[in-house]
Structures are given as C-alpha cells and as structure tokens.
Automatic annotation (TrEMBL):
It comes from Devosia nanyangense. Residues 85-206 form the GST C-terminal domain. This is Glutathione S-transferase family protein. Keywords: Transferase. Residues 1-81 form the GST N-terminal domain. GO terms for molecular function: transferase activity. Belongs to the GST superfamily.
Length: 206
C-alpha cells in the first residue's frame, strides 16, 4: 500500500492527503515532521535528504516534493485532476507552479513569525513586507477567479484547486488586516463544500 510520510498539520502533506481522498487512492500515513517526529534522522534522510514532508513510498518507489507527488498520484490513478489535454494540463500546471514559486514564498516570513513563533523575535518590517507581497499575490488570484468562478482552471475541479484552496486556508489562518476578496471567498466556499476537503480545510491552523 502507498505510504505517505508527514504530519497532517502540514499544508504540503494536506495537499497529498486531500488529493488521495479525491482520487480514491488508499494509503497509510505515518507521522513525520516537527514537532511530532523530527525528520532529521538517518531513516528519514535516506528517503528525503531535505528533511521535509511529505514523502511517499509506493512499493519501494520514493518521491518527495508535494507537487511532484500530486502529479505522480494523478498519473498512477489515471485521474483527470491533472488533465491529459495539453492546454488544460498547462493551465493546471501553471497555477500549481505559481503557488509553489510565487505565492508560497510571499507568505513565508509572516507565517513563520505569526503561526510558528519562528523567528521568536521577528523583524516587523519583514512581516509587513511579507504581508504586502502576499496580499499582492492574492489580488492576482482574485482577478483570475473573478473570471473562472468555482474552479481555477478548465471549469472543473483539479489539482490546482487543491493547492490554491489550501493556500486560501492559510491566508485565513493568519490574523492581519485583509482586503475583501469575494472571488477567492467564492472559490474557497466551493472547496469547503467538497466532502474530501472537510478534514483539510476545517481547522484554522498551519
Ligand atoms: N517544496 C516542498 C516543501 C516541503 C515543506 O516545506 N514541508 C514542511 C512542512 S509544510 C516541513 O517538512 N517542515 C519541517 C518539519 O515539519 O519538520 C514540498 O512542496 O513538498
């Protein structure tokens, strides 16, 4: 059976678990990741030298990086959550890449400071800069969702909705003055109405 290594409080682990549930992929999960179980041990580092979760082990095949795992699982399951048609797939990939390379780095400092007490004495100017950058990215998402409605791409649910739905969950989890983003809210509501999402979007924790 597919093994998923990672704590359920991790956004990147949640991507994998939510996608697996949507695709009906059966897995067993093992708790790894701080503060629950430190991955900086030889047993884990042999699987992922980055000491980060999630990692999957599929019949001896090891994979890390959440989006690589999502694409692998969709391929294995023959799931349309990553469409086969080139343009449809391109759009899903585009928003997944944007989440990882643009949106995630924007929130990194403020999420560390406000949700994880890391660093313990944060630099207020860096917090403000992170909030500004994150908000700017969320406006980009808002303008896109104003056109596409309940789904990020192709008028139907895909891996892009999972990674961006969880990103909105993170946005809502950190307290600061936020602008109204009605299209983001509409998309998030559509995500929370999915039975498979309930476990991953309910608690407002990191
Ligand atoms: N780019 C990686 C990032 C993975 C990552 O940053 N994981 C965090 C949790 S969200 C982690 O493992 N932190 C260390 C820990 O939990 O011990 C991915 O998408 O999988």
């Amino acid at each position: 059976m597919l093994r998923v290594l990672g704590r359920t409080t991790s956004i990147n682990v949640r991507k994998v678990l939510w996608a697996a549930d949507e695709m009906g992929v059966v897995y067993e999960r093992e708790d790894w990741g701080n503060p629950i179980r430190d991955p900086n041990v030889p047993e884990f580092l042999a699987l992922n030298p980055n000491a980060l979760v999630p990692v999957i082990v599929d019949d001896g095949f090891v994979l890390w990086e959440s989006h690589a795992i999502l694409r692998y699982m969709a391929g294995r399951a023959g799931s349309d959550l990553l469409p086969a048609e080139a343009r449809e797939r391109g759009l899903v990939d585009q928003w997944m890449s944007w989440q990882a390379s643009d949106l995630n780095p924007a929130w990194s400092y403020v999420v560390g400071a406000r949700l994880r007490n890391n660093p313990p004495n944060p630099d207020e100017a860096r917090i403000e800069a992170s909030i500004t950058a994150w908000t700017r990215k969320m406006h980009i998402l808002e303008r896109h969702l104003e056109k596409t409605g309940d789904f990020v791409a192709n008028g139907r649910f895909s891996l892009a909705d999972i990674v961006l739905g969880l990103s909105t969950h993170r946005w809502l989890s950190v307290a600061f003055d936020k602008p109204e983003l009605p299209a983001v809210e509409t998309h998030y509501k559509a995500m929370t109405s999915r039975p498979a999402a309930a476990a991953y979007l309910s608690e407002r924790t990191p």
